[in-house]
Amino acid sequence: MNTPAPERTPERTVRLVLVAPAVNAALLEGRFDDDSPVKPGESEPGRTEPVRLGRTARVFVSPSVRCRSTAGLLGLPEAEDVAALAGCAMGRWRGRRLDELATEEPESVAAWLADPDAVPHGGEALRSLWDRVAGWVDALEPGTVWAVAEPDVIRAAVAHALGAPGAAFWRLDVRPLSRVALSGRSGRWNVVIGSRLD
Q: What's the pLDDT tens digit per position in 77-102?
């Protein structure tokens, strides 16, 4: 007697792998990103083989030069740009060093570090970054998703997934070409932090 194969239940879990971009000049010099390209030879470890994603993975990328370049280096040239994954817009601070700004306008820097709604640079509030990243993460359909994303986007996603207070954003360090994996669904996430790309 032939027993019919059980029907596969639809996948209900999101598996999100967030990959930090390779090094660019701004990162090497400790400046707010200015959309400069990846620095050849500075992106350790050098990759010669594409990342293995699995055939059903969806792939996204922050709309920046360094994230798109990193996606290409990882063998993910078809990654789709997602506006919600853009790094925080730093306005007139773009390309500037935080230590220089702290000397030139200490009150503005102190306000920005203490208040997630402050925009002394004329760009985007950190709360706005957190909200749009959280909205994107929570709206993901079940399945496997990879995204090459700006470090501040990854920090916001992890803080959101953990339900951490806003101050946790400043306590998370995201290294170039490292990955963070989130699995679960809106309201209940597990986090694996800092594994290297194989």
A: 889 999 999 999 999 999 999 999 99
Distance of alpha carbon 89 from alpha carbon 33, whole angstroms: 9
Residue 28: C-alpha distances to residues 24, 32, 94 (Å): 6, 10, 15
CA distance 143 to 42: 33
End-to-end Cα distance, the chain: 46
Q: Are 175 and 20 spatial neighbours (Cβ–Cβ below 8 Å)?
A: yes
132-141, 146-155, 168-177: range with lowest mean pLDDT = 168-177
Angle at 128 between CA 125 and CA 131, to 5 degrees: 150
Q: What is the mean pLDDT of residues 141-161?
A: 94
**Residue appearing with tokens 């809106």:** 186
- CB distance 14 to 3 below 8 Å: no
For residue 143, the surrounding DSSP H or E stretch is: strand 143-148
Report the distance separating Cα 141 and Cα 138, nearest Å. 9
Q: Tell me: the pLDDT tens digits for 131-147?
A: 999 999 999 999 999 99
